[in-house]
Amino acid sequence: MSVLLSSPDPSGHKLREKHAPTASQEPDRKKTSNLATSKPSFHLTAPSGWMNDPCGLGYDPTTGLYHLFFQWNPHGNDWGNMSWGHATSTNLVSWKVSPTPALTPSTEYDRCGIFTGCLQATDIYGNPGSLTAMYTSVRHLPLHHTLPYITGCESLSLAVSNNGGKTWDRLECNPILAGPPEHLPVTGWRDPHLTTWPEEQTTSSGSPQHPLHGIVAGGITGKAPAIFVYTVNPTDLRSWTYTGILVDVGLNFHPSRWSGDFGVNWEVGNLMTLSNNGVSRDFAIMGAEGCLRFEDSLWETPGTAQQHRQARSQLWMCIKPRTLNTVTNLHKNENEALAGYVFGGYFDHGCLYAANSFWDPLTSQRIVYGWITEEDLPDEHRHRQGWSGMISLPRVVDLVTLKNVTKARNSKLESITSIEAIPNNHPSELQTYTIHTLGIKPDPRLCLLRDGAERRYFPDEHLPVSLRDTSDESLSLTSNWWELEAEFSVGSSCGRVGIQIAHTTGKS
């Protein structure tokens, strides 16, 4: 076991280069001085106040900058006044955060909030040199999947920047979509995302095309959580045509402990095609609301803070598209789901939620960010510290392929619903399989954060046999910034293994 201990060296890489706070953002020094060291150094945070979903992710080739917007309340440390904060970076490691919001609730159609959305590095006609933000414009609150849905409460609006994201102009025709499909009773309809899916199709003339789709997350009342799919005109981003729902899994779909509960309403849906050595699979990532607690849960540990978190999960699923009309790129029957569920799993076992992604043209990888919630922190402490929530470190997702697999250590391969196990048809006494699943790993550029770090080794550490047992083994860390690298040896009867991070002697 080894630990990298970092120090806040001004000459090293800093995740965030804060602008000077305005007078209204200046914190109460007396109340927050003892909490100054609690603000993250490696995670992006708002200048002050509440933050949640990452949104408007992307790379602008005109300026050479990455953009990351985020849900932000610049006026308080609780949810409300939802605006878009803005940060830019050249490497996804050092960020420059604007002290003022990029978009704020200021029109009739978005008077109650600028909710999550996406970014396109073109103008609305597909021309380079501008940025277009697509966001959920909210004119009625509260919104929750357990409440009756108010017609017109959520709509889709666009804003354009012609100066690299410094200022934004809303379209006069906003909202471009007044709400969800009129024939569907919904539990929610928000968080637009643009994607090319399926990855490539062939037109009737035989030439390849990359169709542009817009997806909006939500649910259909009493039926299932949903991702609503639209075809989008790439030369006129105002033109969205409803195609159908992506997949129909029913309410609280729970394949097994490996895959979680897909809830009753989805938020921040993403759709992508990932490839590996000529093999491709389609994946959807979603935040699931209304999840039930199951006795076979992989992640719930008695006595830990996660038992008090909201009933939601960050999940993913692999899907298989159904037959499409390749001439019009429209599904033949919009009442039938566009794709079927194949396998799925947890995207994160902790407190990450609202995962959002973009395709990085510099690395040719799909990059994912999420919101790290403050649900484990008492409200009194959270209010006193003057800020709430942070953006996760960037993750890369890809298609993982494992060949010539014979078996899992304990479980039967067919019982693991977070993988696809394909039998290999070759003459052999030993049956082998090719395994496909979603791979999730830290972005390699995060290695820049190790500059100046000190490595310490802790060989032959002995862990307790049971998570409920106590142990005298502990690591005395003198830094607030550290990275742990460990290998585990487990017995054949071991059911689960992991690390508990204790902030106090009482493991709170």
TrEMBL record:
Keyword terms = Glycosidase, Hydrolase, Signal
Top-level division of the source organism's lineage: Eukaryota
Family assignment? Belongs to the glycosyl hydrolase 32 family.
Where is each Glycosyl hydrolase family 32 N-terminal domain found? 43-401
Q: Does the keyword Membrane apply?
A: no
For the region Disordered, give the residue spans.
1-40
Q: Where is the composition biased (Basic and acidic residues)?
A: 11-31
> Where, by residue number, does the polypeptide cross the bilayer?
none
Q: Which organism is it from?
A: Penicillium subrubescens
Q: What is this protein called?
A: Beta-fructofuranosidase, insoluble isoenzyme 3
The record's section on PANTHER family has: EXOINULINASE INUD (AFU_ORTHOLOGUE AFUA_5G00480) (PTHR42800), GLYCOSYL HYDROLASE FAMILY 32 N-TERMINAL DOMAIN-CONTAINING PROTEIN (PTHR42800:SF3)
